[in-house]
Amino acid sequence: MEKLIGHLSELDDPRCPGKVEHRLIDILVIAVCAVIACAESWEDIVLYGRSKQDWLRRFLALPNGVPSHDTFRRVFILIDPDAFEACFTAWAQGIAPLGKHEVVAIDGKTVRRSFDWGREQAPLHWVSAWASEQGLVLGQRRVDDKSNEITAIPELLDAGAGRHPGHARCHGLSEGDCPAHSGPPSGLPSGIEGQPRPRLYGRAKAFRPPLLSARSPLRPEVDGFDESHGRLVRRRVFASAEAATLPVLADWPKLRTVLAVESIGSVNDGCGKVEADIRYFLSSSTAQAPLLAQAIRRHWSIENNLHWVLDVNFREDESRLRDPTATRNFALLRKIALNLVGHDRSKNTSLRAKRKKAAWDNNYMGQLLSANFMH
Fold this sequence. Notes:
Number of strands: 9
Helix content: 25-40%
Number of domains: 2
Strand order of the largest sheet: 3-2-1-4-5-9-8-7-6
Oligomer: single chain
Order of helices and strands: HHHHHHEEEHEEHHEEEEHHHHH
Largest sheet: 9 strands, mixed
Distance between the termini: 11 Å
Number of helices: 14
Radius of gyration: 23 Å
Strand content: 15-25%
C-alpha cells in the first residue's frame, strides 16, 4: 500500500492550499479503488468511498470524510494530465520486469462518446503502449485534434513508455508519415495498410512481385494454420532485406527488412467462401524473421486485451464525461485498475468477476493493491 501512496504522492496538488478540505492522495486512492470496484462516474466513486469508509481509514487520513462527487470532478479537471501520465508510466515500469523479447504494442483508441458538439469538441483520441506478454499498460498520450497518431507516438516514447532496450515496439503508420529527415521508429515492426494510407501502401505494393511471385526464390519464413472461432486461416510471412534497399524507401535510412503477411481464411458456415489479404510491414530490427512474425501477431493483443476490455468491461465508450482533462485522467484510472486486476492471473475467474470480488471483499482489494505496488 505504501508504494501506491508513494507513486501517487508525486503529483502536485493544483488547488489553493487555504481551501483544501480533502487530501489529494486520499482522493486519488479512493478513485483508484472505486474504479477497480466497477465505478463508472464521480457519483459511483463517492458511493464506494462512503460504503468503504471504515476500511479506507486504515491507510488514509480522511480528515473530513469522503469528498463529494463535485469535489472529485473538480480535482480531476485540475490535475495536470501530463504529470499524471508520467506518474503512471513510472509506476507501470516497476510492476513487473519485461522479458527480452517483450513486444510493446502502440495503437490508438477513440472514446466515442466524449464529444461535446456545443463546444465544437470532437471525441478524444489517444495512443497507448501495451506490454503484450505481461498484459500491462505502460502509458498513454492524447492525440491533438489537429494532429495524428504518428506525432503522439514519439511523445509517448519520450515519456518512458516502451523505452526498454532490446524490446520490440510495434505500431501503425499514418498517411503521409515519411518525412525525408526521419528514419523508422525504433523496434519492430511498423504496419502499413491500405486506405487511408495510400502513399506508403502504394510503395509497399510494388514489393509484391518480388516477394510473392511464383517465380521468386523467396520462400515463406513462417507458414502455419490457425483454427479458432469457426475460422481456418493460413498465414505465410515473407521477409526481404533486399526490398528495404529500394529507392522508394530511401526516406527510411535505418530500414532493414520489409515483410509481407499473407492471410488466407475461410469460415465454416457451409458457404465455402475464402478470403485473402496481404499486409506489409517495415522493420529496423536485426531480429530474425520468425521473431518479427511473432511480434506482428502479438501486436493484436492491444486490440483484444486492452481496447476491447476497456470498451466491454469498463464501458469506456459509453462514458459521457466531456471535459477533456477529466476524461483523460479518468481513462488513466481505468488503466491503473486494469493493471492491478490483471496482475491476478487466476484462470478460472473473469476480469469482471475479479472486479466485483474486489468491491465486496476488502481483503482481496488489499491483495490487489499490495501485490502490484510491492514489486
